[in-house]
Design a protein that fits this description.
By secondary structure, the chain is of the alpha/beta class. The chain has 3 domains: about 80 residues, Winged helix-like DNA-binding domain superfamily/Winged helix DNA-binding domain (Arc Repressor Mutant, subunit A, Orthogonal Bundle), CATH 1.10.10.10; about 120 residues, D-Maltodextrin-Binding Protein, domain 2 (3-Layer(aba) Sandwich), CATH 3.40.190; about 100 residues, Periplasmic binding protein-like II (D-Maltodextrin-Binding Protein, domain 2), CATH 3.40.190. The chain is about 45% helix and about 20% strand. Helix 1 packs across helix 2 and helix 9 packs across helix 10. About 30% of the residues are buried.
């Protein structure tokens, strides 16, 4: 087994000389092809054999032939040089903001409004693109294990070093009720509402579900657990059917795509309760791309989401805000 830091027994130029000898079948012919002297080629081959500890050529035949060890090295050397020759073009593409592959994780409450535009934007930066919608927690793990290159969601990685973050949008948690239900103006009104309608929760697997439960504990509101969902669609549809109420966010409601006439949306009574969505990437790995993608996402939300949400809920004001 090779020891970490042990010098390799060859470099790429030596492998190139070795392969030229294999192709031509003679040291002199390889020297002419490469623009070298014959002694230089012979010395490179001798050094390679000495450092690998293997005889690579059978010099008893003309043209010289490969030994079994030489055959193995020829196969591996060809693959190595082929990979090496692709590096410079890939680096030039990266300088032009192109990548071979970009994989993005998108919190599910942004899927409807951002998945398609973000995917198209990423195609302008990379040859292959993957956009995965789902829970932020699974995307955070995938980013740390290099299965994703960036994520857009609730930042669960504040304490992790080596990441760069670009705030996108801030929004309040709000009360979501069936159409026609009056506004609960005080915390006591929520407790009374729960006696009439079950609270429909976001799953504790989601950051939204965790934050809502934490906020309720701060408010000393202990509401029965009856029904929960992983997706904004499930939560919102049950409320629209008149079968429950929920604590949600404007973007989660927009994601559900349900007729707003079936819903009543009101501010949460009590202290301010907000969430922020952030674009997170590993620092210095994607150049300017994360910053530019964050600006693109802000512009898309400002144009395609915020106006509709403020039209439906004029009381939102600056609580729903694109981040600088």
């Amino acid at each position: 087994m090779a020891v970490r830091g042990e010098a390799l027994p060859f470099d790429l130029r030596t492998l190139e000389i070795f392969l030229a000898v294999c192709d031509v079948g003679a040291m002199a012919g390889a020297a002419r092809q490469l623009g070298l002297t014959q002694p230089a080629v012979s010395q490179a081959v001798a050094d390679l054999e000495a450092k690998t500890g293997a005889v690579l050529f059978d010099r008893s035949v003309r043209p010289i032939g490969l030994t079994p060890a030489g055959g193995v090295l020829r196969q591996r050397a060809s693959a190595l040089l082929s990979e090496a020759r692709q590096i410079a073009p890939m680096l030039r593409e990266t300088e032009n903001s192109r990548f071979p592959l970009l994989r993005a994780g998108l919190v599910d409450s942004l899927s409807r409004v951002l998945a398609a535009p973000l995917g198209v934007r990423l195609m302008g930066l990379a040859d292959e693109v993957s956009v995965l919608a789902g829970l932020t927690s699974s995307h955070a793990s995938a980013l740390l294990t290099r299965q994703l290159d960036l994520l857009l969601g609730v930042d669960e990685l504040e304490e992790i070093a080596g990441l760069e973050r670009f705030p996108i949008i801030s929004e309040p948690y709000i009360l979501l009720l069936p159409a026609g239900r009056p506004r609960p103006a005080r915390l006591d009104d929520i407790a009374r509402l729960a006696q009439d309608l079950p609270m429909v929760r976001f799953s504790a697997r989601s950051k939204t579900g965790i934050e809502v439960e934490r906020h309720f504990r701060r408010l000393k509101l202990d509401l029965p657990h009856r029904l929960e969902f992983d997706t904004p669609q499930g939560v919102t549809e049950v409320v629209a059917r008149g079968e429950g109420f929920a604590v949600s966010t404007p973007l989660c409601i927009l994601e559900a795509g349900i007729d707003m006439a079936r819903l009543a949306c009101w501010p949460m009574p009590g202290p301010a309760f907000l969430r922020g969505l952030t674009l997170v990437a590993r620092r210095q790995e994607l150049g300017r791309a994360p910053r530019e993608l964050a600006a693109f996402c802000r512009a898309e939300l400002a144009q395609r989401a915020v106006p509709d949400l403020r039209a439906w809920m004029p009381w939102l004001g600056e609580a729903l805000s694109i981040q600088p």
